[in-house]
Amino acid sequence: METDRNHNSPDIYESLERVTALLQERQSLTDLGYEATPEQSHSGDQNTAALKILASLQALLDPMHPADVAYILEALPLKDRLALWDLVKADRDGEILLEVSDAVRETLIEHMDDHELVAATGQLDTDEIADLAPDLPSEVIADVFRLLPPEEREQLREAMSYPEDTVGALMDFDMVEIREDVTLEVVLRYLRRLDELPDHTDQLFVVDREQKLQGLVPINRLLVTDPDVTVGTVMTREFVQFNADEEAAEAASAFERYDLVSAPVVDDSGALVGRMTVNAVVDYMREKTDSEMLSAGGLQEDEDIFASVWKSVRNRWAWLAINLCTAFMASRVIGLFEGSIAKLVALAALMPIIAGIGGNSGNQTITMIVRALALGQITRDNAAKLFAKELSVSALNGLIWGGVVGVFAFLIYHNWHLGLVMMLAMMLNLLLAAFMGVLIPMTMDKLGKDPAVGSSVMITAITDSGGFFIFLGLATLFLV
């Protein structure tokens, strides 16, 4: 993929505004009965306004990097998106499909026929085809298999065999392999015969005749070493490598920890099967972060912002239903203390403070724990210390901020007993928030579930109901 295509193009936000304005002009002309097709825009007839608009759109799209085109497509309503998609050059379809989000990719694929999908997919490398494969119809994948050379067909079959979120699913097969017994001069001559090096090539992989990985030769060492020296003399024998069945999250952490650009991927026998590159890791981490953000809000999947109303409702209803149930629970907790609230109306005004601060504190704790779980920082040995630490933090915060709200209550209602109840309720609810903020994500992780899924919804429900119960219960005992 060419990374410098957009070097001289306008700012992407200006491009989006320009595309939007041209599409609006085109729609206005269409409403008046003037319309042109993408095929007509190549005819050279620029006499009509409709044709000029099409020509302007294509002139704007053609020099753009695929990622920029993807950004614009994602920012457009469905009708405009599909109209713009028809103007994209066919030889760029595959690159752009890789860049758009899963939800937007689905709308674009539905708009293409099988012939277009096969043509677009056939332009990609095998690892890229494997990335698109889950979204493509089975008959398209079958046609792509038939069109690939035998070696690439086998690579695609291998790439598709690995589960999602494993190293094998992220690796690519485009790499440079050399032998240990040849000289660097031979290696340099071999490299000069290539059209270009694979993207993110910072090292060459040394393998034996059985394809077993022996070592690595960094490109910078290759360039500054005497060309008469053999590869075995300069190669690095200690290096980071990954097994194709390893979890991608662990590999991504290693890339960050060791500042890697690329790393070899081997099978159980130690044979080199591919490599993992930093661009694949960055894409994986971005998608994982997006997924966690959506999960924390109770969204089941990536949602196109311009999806149909019904589709958006289906994506959001589950956790809203759960939230409604927890809201009913909170209301029933309040109902248990209707008599106390009737006798001391100030309780109704003050109890949202206890619940709100508790929910915020719980979400802070959950965010820290989910992040620590993702980085593999929580173990069986340190879990108890983590619980104790979070409880201590919440106890201190409860003492400080409980004191603040206690003084606040005293100044407004001139009742020091109410101030003490507020302080104690604040401290107890923050302790509850800390306890559940650690317990919820760790329990979900223990059960093999994503610890971010719905965590904020659950902690808010618990701190609301718990906060109301604690505050109103204490008030009933000591004030009413």
Please provide a written account of the structure.
The protein is mainly alpha-helical and 480 residues long. It folds into 3 domains: 12-165, MgtE N-terminal domain-like (MgtE N-terminal fold); 177-296, CBS-domain (Roll), CATH 3.10.580.10; 309-478, Tetracycline Repressor, domain 2 (Orthogonal Bundle), CATH 1.10.357. It is built from 22 helices and 6 strands. It has helices spanning 12-31, 49-61, 66-74, 78-85, 93-99, 102-110, 114-122, 126-132, 138-147, 150-161, 167-170, 184-192, 219-224, 231-234, 248-258, 278-296, 309-336, 338-343, 346-374, 383-413, 416-446, 455-478, and strands at residues 177-178, 203-207, 213-218, 242-243, 262-266, 272-277. It has a 3-stranded mixed beta sheet. The protein has a 3-stranded mixed beta sheet with strand order 4-5-6. Helix 1 packs antiparallel against helix 2 (49-61), helix 7 (114-122) crosses helix 9 (138-147) and helix 17 (309-336) runs parallel beside helix 22 (455-478). The radius of gyration is 30 Å and the shape is globular. Mean pLDDT is 88; it is low at 1-9 and 41-47.
